[in-house]
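Let us practice reading a record.
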Amino acid sequence: MHVFGHHQLGLNQHNNAINLCKEAIEIASSNDIPFLKVIGYFNLGVYNEYLDNLQTARNSLETTLDIDYPKDIKKDTYLAIKYMLARVLFRMDLIEEGREWLNESKKLAEEINEQTYQTKISIIQSIYLEPNESSLDDELEKLKKKKLWHDVSDLSAIAGRHFKKKEMYELATKYLVEALKAKEYTSSLQEEAERI
C-alpha cells in the first residue's frame, strides 16, 4: 500500500517522504490519474499519523474518500483508508466517528476476507471500544505469528499511549514495552536487508 516515500520514512527522513507524497499528488492531479492521487493522499495520511499530526492525517485520509474513483475496483485500498481514518479519529478522541469508520472497515474486511485487517480492527476495538487485555494480547499474537513486527510495534504503542492517557499505567507500560520489543525486530530486519 505504501507506494511513495516508504523508504525515506524508514530512514527517519519524514519531510522527504511527505514531500514525495505531495509531489506524487501534484503529478497525479495534473495528469488526471485519480488512483495515484488516492495513494498519495493515503500515504500522506499515514505519515502524518506517524508524526502525530492527527488533524492533517485526518484531512488527507478524508480527501482520499472524496476523490472520484470507483471504490469497488480497489476494495483493499479503501479498507486500508477506512481503517486508518478510524484509527486517527480514535487517537483524536473522536470515539463515535472512529466507531463508524471502524465498522465500515470491519464490514469491508469481512467482505473481502482480509484476515490481517480483521485482526488489526479487533485490536483497535480492544483498545478503544471494548477494552480487553486478553483479547488485545490474542490479536497481537496473531500478528506476531505472521511476523508483522511493524504492525505489532505500531499498535502496541497506540495501546500503550491510550492506556497512559487513561491513567492505566500498568497496561501502558506493558504495551509500550511490547512496542519496543517488536521495534527491535523491525530494526534487525532492516539492518539485515541493508547488508544484502
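A brief commentary: Residues 1-9 have pLDDT under 50 and may be disordered.
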